[in-house]
Amino acid sequence: MSRKLALFWSGLVLLAACQLAPQSGEGFQALGVLGGTPERPTLMGKVLDTAGANLTKEGEAFAGTLLPGMVVQVSGTDLGSTVRVTSLEVQVELKGPITSLDTTAGTLEVLGQRVLTDASTRIYQKAGSTYRTLLLADLAVGDVVEVHGTATDSGVLATYIERYPATTQEVELEGQATDLDSTAKTFLLNGYLVDYSWARVEGTPADGAWVEVKGILSGTTIQASKVEFKTSGNSGYGASRRVELEGPILGLDPAQKTFQLLGYTVDYSAANVVGTLVDGAYVEAKGQVDASDPTLFHAQLVKVKYPSSRTPKAEAEGQITAIDPAARTFELGSLRFYVDDHTVLKRDDPDGPLAFADIRVGDYAEVYYDPTATDAEGRYYAVKVEVKGTGSGGDTSEWEGPVTAVDHTAYTFQLLGYLVTTTPSTQFEARDQHLTREDFFTLLREGDRVEVKGTLSGTTIQASKVELKGR
Question: pLDDT of 419-461, one tens digit each?
Fold first, then answer.
């Protein structure tokens, strides 16, 4: 099991009579998965005000974008619906090249570690100054990825995956050091030889110690630039009135009443549990770190926020055009969907769970679905539905899905039941390359997944930008 996050928080003990319900102006200390939007990141459903905050990533200054799915540790002041952040640390579990990929099972392997994905896993790639979302099928063996999530001995359940340029050489990994040779300054980690002779070393090298490594990969050897041998130091927080955890669980043991969450073994034997605990469920946990074991968290409240789900195979986005709350079905243009108790239903502002009955026609939504799973009426199974707000005709909006009726002469196609028209001034992009309209339509085929930005008038979208996402 990964102990990085737990050991970073070692020594953090709560007062026995802690008050679970936060009071406005009270100290806020939490470890969890970011929600909301890049413009309004949230944690535990609260908007994070990071103006003036100390932002770091793995101990180094961070000036990047805070994206949904990132695992972060936050300290600040709770102001009710907002947290004034004093410090925020982005926590990386793993970074390196993909050595195997199974899109059917929703798994990949990175530096000898198995990575699991589901509907809550966010996959990104930086494109200029912005980020675009990907599906697991968009990744390939050899891609360099950064992974955040909950780790166990059996693998990492990812909440965040970012694909880096193929030229990226730096890797990050952690685990138990074996066959340590203090003279040669080497050890084995997850099947890789780590050479730390030129590295900045923190902690005391010891065979069997839990270690975090950064360096350059060459074959099966990592030339380390930084090696941290973990010890039970102190995070610097001291005693706190409350600590909150939020993320996906793994390794559920109903007999022992424990599970793994973001580096902690959570003991829920004395907790008030709201909802059904299963591996992969997304929970909020409040409680205290054990006084003598910094990897053990005693929960007083565990609340299931989202159910366990599977990996989606396709994505569509746009306005909901029809909905039947009783039948639990809805339509996104020409695409029809159904949901069940395992579908993740959420909104992004304010971030949190959403009842299907609260979704309305006209809501703008992202739908992650499985096109191989259909009901008797041919509707696709919606693995996740995220409502982004209510769109309106005449505004610049976005739509995503598979194209039909491609007209290579008129430079038009059908998307989600709408006719998409283009002009010579429309921007076209494929594989991170800008294309002319002629070249783009030469590439475009029936069934290709595209993202369109533009203006809706009736049933016609006048596109300002079209991006080929995959096929």
Answer: 999 999 999 998 778 899 999 999 999 999 998 988 888 889 9
- DSSP string of 146-179, one letter each residue: EEEEEEETTEEEEEEEEEEPTT--EEEEEEE-EE
d(CA 173, CA 165): 18
SS3 91: coil
The whole-number pLDDT of residue 420 equals 95
Better pLDDT: 199 or 59: 199
Buried b (16+ CB within 10 A) or exposed e, 144-172: bbbbbbbbbeebbbbbbbbbbeeebeebb
User: How far apart, in whole angstroms, are the C-alpha atoms of residue 359 and residue 471?
Assistant: 30
- The residue behind tokens 């409502």 is 387
- Report the pLDDT averaged over residues 96-106: 95
Task: Identify the pLDDT of residue 127.
Answer: 75
Which pair of structure tokens corresponds to residue 254?
Answer: 């109903």
Beta bridge partners of 282: 248, 306
Q: How confident is the model at residue 390 (pLDDT cuts 50, 70, 90)?
A: low
Spatial CB neighbours of 391, under 8 Å, sequence gap ≥ 6: 318, 319, 362, 363, 364, 397, 456
Give the separation between CA 154 and CA 459, rounded to whole angstroms: 49
Question: Element (H or E) spanning 8, and its range?
Answer: helix 4-8
Tell me the one-letter amino acid at 123: I
Amino acid (1-letter code) at residue 470: G
The label of the residue with tokens 């997850």 reads 190
Alpha-carbon gap, residue 322 to 333, rounded angstroms: 8
Cβ atoms of residues 445 and 406 within 8 Å: yes
119, HSE (Cβ side, Cα atoms, 13 Å): 26
Instruction: Give whole-number Cα distances, 349 to 199, 222, 387, in Å.
Output: 44, 42, 9
Give the chain's mean pLDDT.
87
Helix H or strand E encompassing 402: strand 396-407
Q: Taking residues 274-290, what's their average pLDDT?
A: 94
Provide the token pair at 41.
């990141």
Query: Which residue do the tokens 């026995």 mark?
Result: 16
Q: Other C-beta atoms within 10 Å of 404: how many? A: 14
In this predicted structure, the answer to whether residue 12 has a pLDDT above a threshold of 60 is no
pLDDT of residue 401: 87
For residue 43, pLDDT beyond 80 = yes
Location of structure tokens 């909020």? 284
Among candidate residues 287, 279, 360, 294, the one with its CA nearest the CA of residue 325? 360
